[in-house]
Design brief:
Blueprint (H helix, E strand, L loop, with lengths): L1 E2 L2 E2 L17 E3 L6 E3 L11 E3 L4 E5 L14 H6 L10 H9 L11 E8 L7 E11 L3 E7 L15 E11 L2 E6 L9 E4 L3 E7 L16 E3 L10 E5 L7 E9 L10 E2 L2 E10 L1 H8 L6 E3 L3 E8 L2 H20 L3 H11 L1 E6 L5 E8 L4 H6 L27 H7 L2
Parallel strand pairs: 3-6, 5-7
Antiparallel strand pairs: 1-2, 4-7, 6-18, 7-16, 8-15, 8-18, 9-10, 10-11, 11-12, 13-14, 13-16, 15-19, 16-17, 19-20, 20-22, 21-22
Length: about 400
């Protein structure tokens, strides 16, 4: 396969149902299994019901190429970029042709779901383990559109939107995105991929579907680029069954996501969904009021607010709550620790609600954990422990190793 002069023979395009489907269940993306521009609420019927601890292989579809400013025609848009028709996703074509959204009232994102997890109740935590992420196509799009992004009023210049088609190829065993220095020039800029899902969430209470752009306590469009293979996201369950969903797939994103979008491109995700009963969740983390990420090294509380300064303050409060509850530090000592040892990163500033996340190293508290008999967080391929990650992926590699390989 060749795209825009770039060889991409290493890729097999993952059309619906094609290729490996390693989960206990498979959920394709179709007009019947996705929402476009809105997120699920308690009134929505599940498209799949599973038991806690089961895995689901889920096809996600990027909104780039199906939006109205791309003609609502992925076949026409991507063939115009040099993509062969058989390398354009059939489900993207079906969604663009079969669904509509209110451009003035709805967001751009396509989310697959909701999935009902048996036994999940409000007050519990839902743990979503990212087991495997596979690119479905060897290309994506980065967009700055309609006066949005970090430089509102400055960029884009002279147009309502600028979309940059970005081929992907394998170099030295790593996947990279390719950009030119000038329009039409040779693609001499290569940056590593680190795929993740920008949107993972649970349904909100009530009968009103939330807008797909702003994140919140339900998760949604949190755009935290740490959520690569081998990591986990914990979300407070808000309705019976949790009604989980995922979407907004990214191949790569810098903290801030300043132009408005990341390298947006469709992924096939295999995820494990686990219900953490409230009592266990409180003993492990204290009160979790919003998204909490866990990587091989860090616990990552979050802060969300339309004002970036307030998002920072919310993240500091969430981090204090976590450190005090999990390790028993007095408030002023927890505050001192965070100031000396914890990085607070800007997740994104472009989603109506800004995001900040803190990276708290669990190893810094190893002596406290050992004294309390809490085992270290380690790889658990069987996924048998309630807080142990499953990093098992295809071909005998681990999510951690693959994420490292991608830079």
């Amino acid at each position: 396969m060749q795209l825009d002069g770039v060889m991409t023979s290493a890729f097999a395009v993952l059309q619906p149902g094609a290729g490996a489907l390693p989960g206990d269940h498979y959920l394709p993306a179709s007009p019947e299994t996705v929402l476009w521009g809105r997120l699920p609420c308690a009134a929505d019927a599940a498209v799949l019901t599973i038991r806690s601890g089961e895995t689901v292989t889920i096809d996600t579809v990027s909104h780039e190429g199906i939006l109205e400013d791309h003609g609502k025609d992925p076949l026409g848009y991507f063939t115009g970029q040099g993509v062969a028709p058989d390398a354009i996703l059939e489900d993207a074509i079906a969604i663009a042709g079969g669904l509509s959204r209110d451009r003035a009232a709805d967001g751009p994102h396509v989310v697959t779901g909701p999935i009902r997890i048996e036994g999940a109740e409000p007050g519990d935590l839902l743990r979503i383990v990212v087991v495997d992420l596979q690119p479905r196509v060897p290309y994506g799009v980065i967009s700055n559109r309609h006066g949005r992004g970090a430089l509102v009023g400055e960029l884009p210049r002279g147009d309502s939107h600028v979309s940059v088609f970005t081929p992907v190829e394998e170099r030295d065993g790593r996947l990279v995105g390719l950009l030119p220095a000038v329009d039409g020039g040779e693609r001499t800029v290569a940056f590593p991929l680190a795929p993740f899902l920008g949107t993972m969430g649970v349904a909100v209470a009530g009968a009103e579907r939330p807008h797909s752009v702003p994140p919140g306590s339900h998760g949604g469009n949190i755009d935290i680029n740490l959520l690569v293979e081998g990591t986990s996201l914990y979300l407070p369950v808000q309705v019976a069954g949790a009604l989980a969903y995922v979407g907004d797939p990214h191949f790569a994103q810098g903290d801030g996501e300043v132009a408005l979008t990341a390298l947006e491109a469709s992924l096939r995700a295999t995820l494990r969904f686990e219900v953490i009963p409230r009592a266990e969740a409180l003993a492990e983390f204290g009160e979790v009021a919003g998204p909490l990420v866990r990587t091989a090294e860090y616990l990552v509380p979050t802060g969300l607010h339309p004002d970036l300064n307030e998002a920072m303050r919310a993240c500091v409060r969430a981090a204090l709550t976590l450190v005090e509850a999990r390790w028993g530090l007095q408030e002023h000592l927890a505050y001192a620790y965070l100031s000396a040892a914890t990085d607070f990163d800007i997740s994104q500033v472009v989603d109506m609600v800004c995001g900040v996340h803190a990276r708290i190293r669990e190893s810094d508290f190893a002596a406290i954990d050992a004294a309390r008999g809490r085992r270290p967080w380690t790889v658990d391929p069987a996924g048998t422990g309630p807080f142990a990650a499953d990093l098992t992926v295809a071909a005998g590699t681990t999510g951690r190793a693959r994420a490292a390989d991608r830079g």
